[in-house]
Amino acid sequence: MEARDKTVRLDLRGVKCPLNWARAKVRLEQMARGEVLELTLDDPRGARDIPSAAEAEGYAVLESTARDGIFHLRIER
């Protein structure tokens, strides 16, 4: 299995900003290049701030969606 085939899921519902970004960043740093981190959030501030923080760290934000107050982000290492 190649690294690009691997998706790591992290449920951060109930975790407020900036702690949700801190947890996501730790997980990203543990992953191999090409792996994708899929985040589930319920914090609108985190959903707004995490993509720009991830890009500032050199990660690629592949997707950012919201539905019924739940936010889904996909970030490539």
Shape: globular
Helix-strand sequence:
EHEHEE
Strand content: 25-35%
Q: What characterizes the major β-sheet?
A: 4 strands, mixed
Describe the model.
Helices cover 32% and strands 34% of the residues. It is an alpha+beta fold and 77 residues long. The chain has a four-stranded mixed beta sheet, with helices on one face. Helix 1 links the parallel strand 1 and strand 2.
Any key phrases for this structure?
single chain; 77 residues; alpha+beta; four-stranded mixed beta sheet; globular
In short:
The protein has 77 residues and is of the alpha+beta class.
What topology does this entry show?
Blueprint: E1 7-11, H1 19-30, E2 36-41, H2 44-56, E3 60-67, E4 70-76
Parallel strand pairs: 1-2
Antiparallel strand pairs: 2-4, 3-4
